[in-house]
Amino acid sequence: MNRIIxxxxxTASGKSTLAIELxxxxxxxxxxxxxxxxYKEMSIGTAKPSKNEMDQAKHYFIDTHSINDPSxxxxxxMKLGREQIxxxxxxxxxxxxxxxxxxxxxxxxxxxxxxxxxxxxxxxxLHEEWSKNGIETLLKELESKDPESYSTIDTNNPMRVxxxxxxxxxxxxxxxxxxxxxxxxxxxxxxxxxxxxxREDLYTRINMRVHQMIDEGLFDEVKELPLKESIxxxxxxxxxxxxxxxxxxxxxxxxxxxxxxNSRNYAKRQETWLKRYSDLICLNPYDAVxxxxxxxxxx
Length: 299
Prior knowledge:
Layout: E1 3-8, H1 15-26, E2 30-32, H2 51-56, E3 59-60, H3 74-90, E4 95-100, H4 103-111, H5 120-133, H6 136-145, H7 147-152, H8 158-171, H9 175-179, E5 190-195, H10 199-216, H11 218-222, H12 231-234, H13 242-246, H14 252-274, E6 280-283, H15 291-296
Helix pairs in contact: 3-4, 5-8, 6-8, 10-14
């Protein structure tokens, strides 16, 4: 029987390690749903699996795209991910492990998406408008055309605002009207797992991971990237915090502290996202039984 095993949850919770251990045990490939690990220029700051870890299990959707062409939307990932999963099952895989902290991309892959009208030329025009005039004019347009979405959207995330306006302009509908169109879920059984850390312990792990990233060369990685030209980087924790540093508006230590703070806030949002799943199986990292053995007892 074909089956998809999902390991998702907050950053620094140990998803990748558990996924690799499980993949080795059940001889399964890993399909990444991490929306930043797709990009080959972003490795240390995204906690991308190391070469040694990649050698331990076959991975898909790692280093597949470039930040110079950040075109892999949740809709694009849904299409490519489903095609890859179908191919893997056709080639003989009985289980596939899906892992990542990007709830939106996992949901797109598994549950499908509402019809999302798009137009590449309009998207480019919106990006140019944002670059030239800032976000305020676009926010006023969103508030005028779709007050409900304006009241709930993260107005500090230009990518979300631009995407919302793209759909609204193309369709002439509000996002709520678009989302009322039925979704088409994936046609395979799934099991969904999360590693349930106490929040204070998760935050400690996050703080330690940031220091580990620094030790591994995050600063050298970031200084080679076009931070001020890339919306993707400007909306990625671990990268965007360096913009004020290079503008001499914050110190090195303040930058590291801000990465830790934003990472903790991101983890909190990821935990909130998890509350929508009624089928979520929680694994206990404090148990004497290993996480791998706990998971195996359910499958």
